[in-house]
Amino acid sequence: MSTVTPGIHHVTCIAGDPQRNMDFWVEALGLRLVKRSINQDDPGTYHFFFADAEGSPGTSMTFFPWADLPQGTVGSGQVSRTAFRVPEGSLDFWESRFDEYGVEYDERVERFGETVLPFRDPDGLPVELVEVEIPDDDPTVPWTEWVPAEHAIRGFHSVTLWLADPQPTMELLETMGMERQGTEQAQGDTPGDERTRFAASGPVGKYVDVLPTIEASRQGHGTVHHVAFQTPTDEDQEAMREAVQGEGLRPTAQIDRHWFRSVYFREHGGVLFELATSGPGYDSDEPLDELGERLVLPGQFEARREEIEAQLPDVTIPRPNAAEADD
Question: Which SS3 state, helix, strand or coil, does residue 76 take?
Answer without folding.
Answer: coil
